[in-house]
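Pasting two entries for a bug report.
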Amino acid sequence: MKKLLLAYCIAVAILGFVSNPIFANEPTNNTGSFPKSFKPVEFVPNEAVLSSLKHSGDKPLAIEFKILDSLANAYSYFTESQQPFVYIPELGKLITIKRGYWDIDRYPYFGDNTKNNLFVLTSDDWGKTWSEPFLVYKTEGMFSSLWARYPSVYAFPFEDDIAYVYTAPVTNGSGWIGFVNGVYFQGSYFPNYSYMFNWDDGNRYGWGGTDSRIVGGMGTDGNPFAMAVSSIMIESGLPLDKTSNLGYRRTIDFDKWEITIPPQWQSNVFRTPQSTNDSVRASAISGFKYGLDGKLYMAAYANFANTSLDVFTFGVSVSTDNGKTWSDFDIMPPDLFGSYLSQYGLNDSLATWGLPQFVPISEGNYYFLTNFNEDTNRTFRPWDEAWHQLAEVYKENGTWGIRKIADLTGYAVRYVAPTNINQLGEESQLVRTVDGTKLVAKWVDFTDVQIGDTVYKRAQHDVFVSVRPLDNSSWIRIKNVTNDLDLDRITWLPDQVPNDLRDIPLLKLVSIPIEGQTDQEAILRQRSLDTVPQYLLLGFFNADDILSVDEQTSGSSGSDATVVINSVYPVPAERFGFINLDLSRDTDSKIDLYNVLGENVRNIHDGIIAAGNKGISFRTDDLPNGNYTIVFNFGGKVIAKPFIIMK
């Protein structure tokens, strides 16, 4: 580590600083890469309702929150495109990263404890006790104009100690100007700055947006490494066919972070957007994590080229060598959304779905969480009567599918702040147990409250969870885990939770109250973001009781299943083929591709396909042009469909 310290000192002495922002007019809060589909509402219940709820006696406190820390404003945890709360199994540590300040009384808002610096807190007992916050990044010297926002953190064992790695987008007050990346090791921190760079195609690029996901570990060569993924934008935003690159910053010595745009993530993989506005770029990152198999998974929410439909869908790229090389995207069949929506009388032009949350388990098995909302601008229905849903999109055993988790109101809190919108929407989050046997979905939503004969619409705002064991095909039930009068906002579960689903830690932010405020004034203050300091609260809840109620089991396979093949597309195909089908029950299935000579040139699927609407994707770019036949065998029932490949 002495080499690292020396390298850092040299870098500070010689590295130049570029101050021009990539997007000069971009605000210092993250507006997200894609338009949000929730509907913001004011949420300030009248005093009579608050008083009635407070004294009704039937609203026991489900979680007792305690103050863990304080910070300057809510923009430390305020984006779905970061990972500020993680569990590291090999260390047995729960870790969170946030911006200053901490402990207002002992450490006032100056010096190290400013809102532009970064601090890490750790716990060895799932959050019951915590370390004092320790400084991992400070705006000083060449970094004095690089104000950190929306940080992400990871950690791994190194040289009989722990290396904490982090990344965060930075602003100078007028726009996003890149990222800081760094490591904290043995009491010292070593930051690095990533901004504009020249790429092999002769163009100049910069880091776009505020994605700040990061991982780290020990490579097979014995060297430590860390890497952070982000979207990449060409300088000035033109030409448009260069605006949708995804890439990473990777280091093995924490002195220099090498920038790479893998060919599998380059702009030509995605459709070209039609505007220089970053909100219509054709790709965004929805997750970057290790699977239980030790592989790295990067999930994208993107408008992939070489698919038949001009819609955003999900794709997963995998690395087996700690991020040095990556596979092509495994793309969810793009018409799967339309098929799923059809059961609700909608199609993909009449509904929206948001940037998903992502959990990988092992190759061929990964999961997304997304929010659907009916587009009432097209259906002309009142929002309260429209369709809003939280759903799981998954790839299991070779097939894609969608499962409903919960119906939602579709509303989110409107903030009193420059953005006046909750960037986290319904704050949906998908995590897994440490052993990878269960998924946990978390979200916030409004609930109606009845007092006497009167029903007050959206009078409470609570945190909800549901659980699905991976050997169960259904989400079991929904649990309101807060069920109190607080305005629950900016809530976070760690990326992994205890296997027994007990004492699950939950973070949330509250605006530090003012003594003597009324309940109504307190809620209005709770909607403030950057204008008032915040408390970081920690509470615990149990979800094991969800498993004991209404458990369901998957149906057994059989030859009496009803099978409908909705579509086989595109025709002709270039790089990918997609199949969309419906099964009435779990079915033992075999799908093969034959050429005109009757030769089996590709097995597309072999195994159980679960009941419901399913999608299957397969590669075609390595096969010669020509006519083919796809043969489906469902428990002895054989169906043949023509297929054409033309590149």
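Entry 2 (this is the one that rendered wrong in the viewer):
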Amino acid sequence: MISDRQRRVLRAVCDTLVPSFEHDDDPHGLFALSGAEAGTCQRVESLIAAIRDTRDRRRLLLLLDVLDSRMVNGLLSGRPQRFTAMDPRAREAVLRSWSDSRFPIRRAGFQALKRLVHVAFVAWPSENGSHPAWKAVGHPGPLPQPETTVPRLPELVVDADATLECDVVVVGSGAGGGVVAGVLAEAGHDVIVLEKGPNPDSRDLTQIEGDMLESLYLDSGLVMAQSGSMPILAGSCVGGGTTINYTSSFALPDSVRRQWDRRSGLDLFATERFTESIDRVQERVGVGTQWTTPGKRDELLERGCRQLGWHLDAIPRNVTDCKEGLECGFCSYGCRHGAKNSTARTYLRDAITRGARLVAQCEVDRMQLDGSRATGVTGTVRGPDGATHRLTVRAPTVVVAAGGLYTTAILERSGMRRGIAGRDLRLHPASAVLGIFPDRVEPWTGSLQTRYSDQFADLDGGYGVKLETAPAHFALVGSAFGWQSARQWRGDVAQLGHVGLVGILLRDRDPGRIVVGRDGHPRVHYELSRFDARHARRGVIEGARLLGSVGAKEVWTLQTPPVKERTDRAGWLERFTAAADARGYRRCRMSYISFHQMGGAAMGAEASRAVIDRTGAVYGLQGVYVADGSAFPDSSGVNPMITIMAVADHIARGIAREA
């Protein structure tokens, strides 16, 4: 997998990005701890081995070879030495030249290594279940398990090659697949649900970030846009994204509903019938604003919006008896109290009560077709002993709800003509502006998200940015904090307890695409357009304005190198803006992340422009439906869970009527 030479280069990179420092005030050893002592290099090596995309893995290993080339270093940095032969100061200078290079491919390479090393350094305990970084900022680390266990859903154990039969097989158990299973089981259909990820109970939710990313997120949380500009996070467990998301439960705005109808050529989204689907799913998952007490970081957002006269409202959430202030900030790694009304707690439980069967850790390879008619699916199941077994499910109706990336892959692996699926992918690129406050904020605490502003949501024809907040734990620090030097980054980490933030959720107009390689793996080709980058820029500037208005003593961007501007001097916002503009907002200049993948199998009135029709049926196939965020004709502009559920409700009820 990794050669001895590449391992030596990787060790040198780790030693350069996370070395040990002498520091005058270091009672918890945050600066003293080195990557070597924390086992960072071994962790990074295991993360590289876990990357499912062989092309991504090969590119990372090639990058290690290039870094150790005398010729390349001589040409690019004026140092004709191997990276492993340089002294620490020279190695850091080489990495700095990559991080701020005028060539996007070099910046992308640096960002990929930086993310892996920094996340590996801070997202797992280093000793005795804790970490000096956590202690230094007052982060509690994993909290004790609750006394009461929330059990996993009953599942069908597959411990040998098997063939099953049913009326409807549903691929995926998230916001789309879970709703389809619940509706169709209620209508009397024999349903089998196949889920790629595990089926955890509350004891499996350890709150160790690195472990939870590996366990609950798609492909261990290691999916990346091919440009290297954006990590892509999606749920991959029973309940899918509804298990690990931030519980923000927005209905699709009326203006977007009308726009989707115009774009798709359908008379659907703006109809009373679709409104009924929205209302049904909101009622079933308990959407409301009863449990929306703002934590400190949301209080800052609320106070700033009121002070500036901006739009502000409470975020509706799908929770019941939420333990606000207890450990809600950890619930992006699953709710251990069962307060989050995920599909695992609602629709899937309903379906299983009515006889549906659930198979976890089952990766579907392809659909089985007799000509153009579906006859089932085939896949691989990982059994309780870790062994893999072949599973065939025979069913006349197949509903693919495998998420924004893998739905496209399953369709193409099953014979759909290349290039039809995968178009019009939107990612809702998300970033943030940070404020450093004199008093403690503890941004990992409080309810997941409780306040938002749409002040800048419509900047150009309905496209713009939504301002929200989100819990900031150490995986965010490792992935997103800007870098200029190892000492600077460590110093920034030390201030996390005083960080307030304004999150920037971009409604992207211009799409990317999913390309399924010959190996069957989906690859995301996406780059922020100039049009969308202008809106991201506005979000950064206005977010900084808000943080300054509520007492931040300094504001930071998530650019590399980061812009940092004190707010106690006249003209600070203008200087901040000029410096951020000089850094840029595209092509690995600023940290973005995608939590929402939409499109790729869009719904529309014409087969030449869409993958599915108004019923969710795939054009050209019989008995095959798509019922997840892939069906979106455009980005939603709001956290998409309720819209996915409403689309799935609409499609499932149509299937039930046709049966």
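Dev reply: Rendering is fixed now. As a check, the viewer should reflect this: The longest strand covers residues 373-382.
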